[in-house]
Structure formats: structure tokens, C-alpha cells
Amino acid sequence: MVVAELTREQIFDWLTEVPDPEIPVLSITDLGIVRDIEVGAEVCVSLSPTYSGCPATEVIEQSVMNTLRHRGLDNIRIKRSLSPPWTTDWISDAGREKLRQYGIAPPEAGGSKRALLDGTRLIACPRCESQASELISEFGSTPCKASYRCTDCREPFEYFKCL
Amino acid sequence: MTENEALLAYTLRLGDNALITAQRMVERVAGEPELEEELANANFALDYLGQARMFYSYAGELEGEGRTEDDFAYLRDGQEFRNLLLLEQPNGHFGDSIVRQFLFESFYLLQLEALAACGDQRLAEIAVRAGKEIRYHLRHAGHWLVRLGDGSEESHGRVQRSLDDVWRFTSEFFAADDVDVQIKEAINGPDLGRIAAAWRKQVAVVLEEATLSTPEDVSIAKGGRQGHHSEHLGYLIAEMQHLQRANPGATW
């Protein structure tokens, strides 16, 4: 394929098909980790890691390579972009809605600063929307989630932590 | 020492601190007192491992001899590591580990905050990323220290002993050598004198809330940053590097 004919929008659109390996309902574009796409002699995709030690980082890079190769590109470079650092504010509105439907309470927007404060947060249950929830554990099945329980519908659920 | 050499030495120290801490935390996996702590510990260990990788990758570029993050982690001997002595001390019981994490992370966060504003762009970027994580860790360690210190008579006594045991390793955080001095001057790096004052103040607040008494500075143990380690590091490294030592060059 002639690279010059491609637009960044086209490549971004292809990347909407790449799922986050830990929360497959989200694509990497929903997650907001695709920082930049440069189209030239090669296609360079800049990705931001979510957490320093996130084991998904390499899987995601491989998936991006595979997806673009599948589309006929062969000159692809992946760049890790550390600055500015990813925060949960970069998750798109569509991504937040997908999380909710998947049963994970999305992070509050503007949470990056509030996350530093030790205040009580009201987290709405993704199933019944009640805000009567309680923290079970600051930690969950992956580094990015905490465990909560809804005291109305009694369902436990995960909350995507603000960062 | 050129600026590049100082930067390389400094970056390796940061990487070694993170890697040795990660390895000690990994030793605790499946040994935590409750499930929540199991998740916290494993998640935090991953953060440290990720930070170590970022520092080592940068060190490899600064050195320019093609060494990778794996070379730094798996193919160096004990005396080549430049981590702080506190971090290589054995885990002990849960309270011992909490005290170690609390004392170190109170320092590390201040160090990262200072680095976030330094003149070396790459170190500053890593420091911003890592600082977000360590802030969360520190909150967790601080909560536990208060729960244990202001808990039962038994927990109070045990965690006070933990504190007394490792206090002598904390002065090493602030003992500036020529690398620190050069980093401060060349890239506007951390001012260890200022950090020491802030650290003492912050630690005192939490210790007071935990009803623990601040130990006195009687003896000082240092030398980790010069490669003079306690006997414990050798065992840690032997386990960490076993696979590469037994099967050189193995990949998977």
C-alpha cells in the first residue's frame, strides 16, 4: 500500500479496533492512549503507557503492529510517549459509557487532582446507579481498579481508579 | 566525572532502588495476611518493576554501549548495584515491610517531585509518571502504619521495634556524594538537604498519629550507593538472577 495515500484519521479509525487486553470492551482509542500518529516514509504511532508496570503495554504494542500489518502496512514504528503522562481523564465519554455497561464504574472526570486527596468519594453502582456504595478494597483484579459493593442492589463491582 | 557519567550513575541508582524494592515485594507474593494486601503488594511491585525498566532503558541509552534493561537487572554482580541499604533488608513480618515502604516512599516521592522539575527531560518525564504511582503507595503504607502503631498493644510494640531496627538506614537517603552534587548543579536535581528537612517533618506527622516515637539517630549505616552492601543483597540477587545464571541468554 502506498503510505502517502493514508491519512492519520484512517489509521486512527483502524486503531479503534484494537482492544485493551485487560478490559476488552474498551479500545485503545477509548482509553485515550493513542497520543500521536505520524505518516511519512513510515507510520509512527505514539502510545502512552497507563501505569509504569502495566503488563498490557507490550501486548497492546503487538496488537497495534498486527492490526496495521493486516491492513497492508509494513513500515510501522511504535513509540512510547511518557509526557504528558496518561491520566484517567483521557478516557473518552464513549469509553466511560462502555465501562459502565460492562459493569465497571468509570473514573470520575477531573479525578486526577481529587485522587490525591483522601476524601470520601461517591461512586455510582454501574448496575442500579445507586450512590450508596462502599469501598471493599483500594485494589482489584488489575492495578487500575478498586473493589466496591453497592449497598442497595448488593452487587459487588469494580471501579476504575482516578489517576 | 562528565555530566553524562553522573547522569548515568544517578539513573542507575534510581533503577536499582526500584528493582530491589520490586524484588523484595515479589518475595511477599502469596504471603500477605489478607487478600486486599495481596493485591496491593503485587500491584505495587509491578509499578516498581515498570519504573526500574524505564530507568534502565534510559541508562542503556546514556551509556551507549548497547546494554538493555535485562543486562542491568540480570547480568551485574551485587557490588555493581547502587541501591539504598534499607531496600535490600529482609522483609521480616508485615509490619517490618510497611515500615520500610513508608520510610523509603516518603523519601522517594520527594525525590521524584524534585526530579519532575529538573533540567533533564527524560528523567523529569519518568519522575512525573512514577510520582503518580508512589503517591498512592505512600498513602497505603501510611494508613497501615497508623493502624498498626495506634492499634493493639502487641501491634504497637512490634511496629515500634520495626522502626527502631531500620531507622539507622534512613540517613543514607540524604548523604550526598559527588554524583548527587553534580546532578544538583548540572540539571537542577534534588537538593538533598531540603528533602531531608521535608522528610523529617512529614514522617514525624505520621509517626505522631501512629503514636510511635521517632528513634534517635545513633548509628548510621550507609554505602549502598558506593556498592558496599549488606550480606542480604547477595541472596536476593542470587534468586533474582538464577534463571539467567543457569541458562545464559535464555529468552521466552
CATH topology of the largest domain in chain A, by name, is GMP Synthetase, Chain A, domain 3
- Overall morphology of chain B: globular
- The counted number of beta strands of chain A is 7
The biggest beta sheet of chain A is recorded as: 4 strands, mixed
CATH topology of chain B: Ferritin
CATH superfamily heading of the largest domain in chain A: Fe-S cluster assembly (FSCA)
CATH architecture level-2 label of chain B: Up-down Bundle
User: Which value, in Å, is the CA radius of gyration of chain B?
Assistant: 18 Å
Structural class category of chain B:
mainly alpha
Rg of chain A over CA atoms, rounded to whole Å, is 18 Å
Query: How is the largest sheet of chain A built, in terms of strand order?
Result: 4-7-6-5
Label the overall shape of chain A.
elongated
Helical content of chain A stands at 25-40%
* CATH arch. level architecture of the largest domain in chain A: 2-Layer Sandwich
**Name given to the CATH homologous superfamily of chain B:** Ferritin, core subunit, four-helix bundle
